[in-house]
Queue: 4 jobs
Job 1
Amino acid sequence: MSLAPWLQETWRSLAERLANGRLPQALLLSGAAGLGKRGLAAALAAAALCENRRADGFACARCRTCLLLAAGTHPDRMQLSFEMRDDGKTPRTEIVIEQIRKLTEQLSLSSQFGGMQVVIIDPADRMNPSAANALLKTLEEPSGSTLMLLVCDQPSRLPATIRSRCQRIEIQPPAHEQALAWLREQDISSSDAELALLAMLGNPGRALEALGDGSLKLRGECSRDLLALRSRHGTALGIAEAWAADRPAERLWHAAVLVRDDMVQLLRGQNSTLGLTGTHEIPKLAGWFAAANRSRELLATQVRGELVVLDLLHTWQTPRSS
């Protein structure tokens, strides 16, 4: 197994602590999506269960436990994520208490191989309050042979009581040159890599995804729509309907990033690409940036997406009077 270059230092530290028996029983792996924390968690889980770790700390991929891990049948490796709803057709959007109770029952049994029991909860920040409270009891009275790996993008959503019982490992975006070099290793041209990194706030994993899933095209559409609204060449209702019908949360994310980038340009004395007139608009634009992020979170609720987007675009169209 290989990890991205910006994860190597973190891996060496974790592998050394695992080898010396000094690894905490609960780790919270956090950071933006696309930086590799899930791969890091999987590598650490495999290493913890491996019977013959390599010199670099990674699992050997050949021993009995590694073969079971590869087959997905290792009894001491547990993972919690979204289960299917009772209808069996759609996945839940949160981790529920029944899953934690089942996990607690499994952990009450001895390890089947006499080693560690490893649990990955991902995304941990999507546990509902009841599930989080139930997990807290397990964290308060951990078994000596249990390793809990909580993985999430937004650790602030976790209760403080959960966070305080885990050692946090936060994955930071790499330096621009390192991110650019990594993308070039994936056969991405320098020009495309630069554009994708700009669009994805320097996140190389998301930049690579954006180059393959149409996200950059979506960003361009959002830029044109915001400029059209600002110059009165489009209607908030028409654009809101289009955004709500096609990847609305991603469009709001792009819109927020575009506004942020434009504010930076204005502060540097550069021309706006979204039709802004000067630095005097920056305070209200900062408010719109925050509102766009709040609206994106609202889309995960039962609120009608079209109404959420429409309200936001109305404030963009008339920022001076908002």
Note: The chain has 14 helices and five strands.
Job 2
Amino acid sequence: MVQTRNAILPDVKAIHAIIQPYAGNGTLLPRTVPELCENIRDFVVAEENGIIIGCGALHLYGIHLAEVRSIAVDPKAKGQGAGMLVVEALLEEAERHHVTCVCLFTRIPDFFAKMGFIVASRDELPDKIYKDCIHCPNLYACDEIAMVRGKLPELYLEQRGSLNIPIPLVRLER
């Protein structure tokens, strides 16, 4: 039976091993071992019979926004519900922190739509853009779909006007 729990430092090696193949093919942003250690408190793992088969993290930008990131499941364990359980655990964590909106960027929007996420404009997520996307070689030609669950707060919408986003972000046509 698959269960989730908060990650601890000894889990870093397994988390890294699960994330790396997805980072290698461009599905996820790469995460180094030191980076995983620094952010281990953000991670949840899914395990079955004591073996870690999936992971994900919740990055808090503030009470107005959090991001579900680094969702990955060992290919041998796909279809067992581990990914869904990880996302549900991360959403519960966001609720505990009273976060009003959770975002993510994905190439599999149907998976996240089942959990109440809806497609959003990338321009509505400058926190994410300036934290991570700014370093991505695909910044202006991103093929990921931005999704949110919850309402973008008014404060957040007001801030957007003062950020001077330099060039409109575009999504590649498929």
Note: The beta strands are 2-6, 43-48, 51-62, 65-73, 101-106, 118-119, 145-150.
Job 3
Amino acid sequence: MWKAAIEAIQQNNTEWLHKNRLIFQQFFFQQNLKPQGQLSKEALTHHYQGKLFKLFLAEDYQGLALDLHQGAKWIENASFLDGNWGWLLGIGVGGAYFADYCDEEIAQQYFSAENAIVAGSGKPCDQAKPAENGFEITGNWKYCSGSEQASFFTAVTLVDKKPQAFIIPTSLAKIKQDWNAIGLPLTCSHSIEVEKALIPKNYFFDLSQPPRKNNYPISTYSFLGFAMACFAPVITGITKSLFHDAENFLTTKKDVWQTYQPERFQLISKKIEKVKIEIEKRSDTFYQVVEKSWNSHLQQKNTLQDELMNSGQNLADYCYAEACAIIPLLGMDAIEKTAEIQKQFQDLQTAYQHMIFRSFNL
């Protein structure tokens, strides 16, 4: 099923996506080797062949070097099929941003590999201790999505009290298997830890310094804009999936509600249709902004970060608000643990918890 699913997300084959969504969710579950997620060898082979974790990686590193809006739509389509898949892609492709900040030889070694998948955390942990030709590091980092299939990790530590990012070979890291959120259960978003790991100096990279020039300039694009382009599509895809479940749920209640609660049936039916139309409208606007921003960046002009961030935020906020509004209208059956809509709702709640969607401005 992988070949057909990958072609469908790439070609935006909505007919296939809608027809096979629930079947794919069962398939995706079976394609994981651990309860908290670890993609099977078969799954990873298809991902490597399709370079699905290299959507935004330059050709120098054997990447697809896609236009940002194109890859973002692939992530949305994957999220529609299964939120776990979309999240793994959204997270997995993000590491491409760091490639041209890294030492050139190290970047080629880690990012060019066929099985290159990055997992990690951006939160600083511990103080690095100087050691011969590098640093000794002890620390742990939470929420490293995709950890079970990562080929290397990135993390942040303090060097002379200043945050510094660095690469951790998987051989030096221990996965704690502590991911326990209400949704996205198959994303293996575990903590990783290292104990007195010796990290060479050339494994460190500084995001405050200019990266190497590249014909595919992802590393000079707005970091926040790139993150929004990867994560807003996950929210969008999961929400579209949720409203398909709401529509299916309504169909099962049609005879009873039309007979005894016709006003309820009409209200919910109209609301579902209205939201589906509005999400399409808002997501189209978002992708137009992403495309405009990326093209502007390619011309070495302003990346329109504020416009992109506002568009993505408005889209995500709308999706979450409408999902929260529809569930109570559906009644008690919709909050059964086995209700199909609950998978999407819990995945959405978990994905929307990402800090990219938070603002604490008064």
Note: The chain has three domains: 2-97, 117-205, 221-357.
Job 4
Amino acid sequence: MITKQNVIPLLKEACPSFEPSEEINFNDKEELQHELSRVAGHLISLEYNGQLEREPDVFEAIEQLYIEGESDVKEAVTTGLFQAMHEMIIDQQISPEEIGMLLKPHSLKWWKTIDHFSENSAEQ
């Protein structure tokens, strides 16, 4: 099982252009989510500049987090990474489908859940 301590190192290995914060307390849920929101910002920046497709390993890593991650890892990826990415794409004129096309099956399911939730919230 992938633990919270493995999340950022796994994403860094898959996306070498991302520079994580120097010291992260992985046991602190807020710190992990903050670091995942930094990953989200980096990925959206890459997409905005047309470079995200050059980082295919990051989508394999995200999929691995959903398949092999402990429940708190899956929750952190959904709320810390995907929710942050979804909020950022609106500002950058990037469609959810553009990101969805790059995701693998398990992570795509959760991406669509965030997208559906966001659409319903916007309608209210």
Note: Residues 4-123 form one domain.
